[in-house]
Specification:
alpha/beta, Rossmann fold
Length: 353
Amino acid sequence: MRVLKRIGYIDEVFDGTTGTHISSYWRGYGWYCTCPSYYYRKRCKHLLELIKNMTAHEINEILTSETLAGREFKSSLDAVNNLFGEFAYNSNQITALYGKPKVGKSLFSIQEAVYLSSKGFNVLFIDTEGSIIPMLREWVPVLEKRFGGRKGKIFIESKKSIESLMEYIGYKVALEYKMADKKKQKGKLEFRVLESIYNELENFIKKKKVDFIILDSLTSPLRSFTKEQQNLPSRGDAIAFILRELVRLQEEYNLGVLVTHHAVFNPANPYETMADASGGIIVHYYCKRFIYLDKRDAAAFKNYRRFWLVRGENAPEWSRAGVAEINNEGYFDVNNDDILQSVFTLSEQSKLK
């Protein structure tokens, strides 16, 4: 299906001379296209085609509709639940967690999977890092004992390349290098969707009655796209297709979704301490709840993690944060006021409400 409509947005897929692109309108963000023309010039023929195909009723519906809460899921940590009021996750919004490598994103994801299964939910854990099995062997027994065992099931799927992940969600794709010598695999890289195929992920969701999906991480399958600026639009196309499909499945099957990302910093600003999520504006289009996971560099705080509210419905950006401690049984909420004060700098405390 080429056009996707939902409360608050509409988007359409276009096959162009420079690859397969997605043009979108999202309430709160406006118009956007993943093609190189829009990336570099902020205008393209795809958006004009999307606008032409939209009816006045559709435009009015997107502009005036309100996002519904949907089905709700709690996190294992009140530090995370409290960022959004009471429930960290719902079936109407993708929740994104991002941070530096080795900060603890995968451990948190495993803990959430075990906790949700202890509440009776069936969880699908999609591993793209390729290193999750040793962590599962170490942590699942510990966390099951802590949370009282599993009432639901945890399913593990490994998809390490962009090609295998795209095939899993129902698309046969090709990455094409535009250069004289393709054997060197250098130069401009284009992303193309060749055909729609059997959607293994959707079939699994229906067959196993999956309630919640964890994708850890979105960033790893994108290693094929080098960091040269000329490859950023193609990388954006791939990100958009993955998140677009998760949004569709979330709406179709009433799922909760947690996606992890790597963090990126502005290299021109050595004083920047708050990072953005890898993937830029496209990730922000599709993920409506954003959490930044970090830690203080000082040795005294090595076991503490801060969960920052980067984006939510009911609070300004970076205005809330929760604290958790990691020990040999996983993540735990911190309720000690002295620690809660000391784990933030004075500058950071001034931002928190």
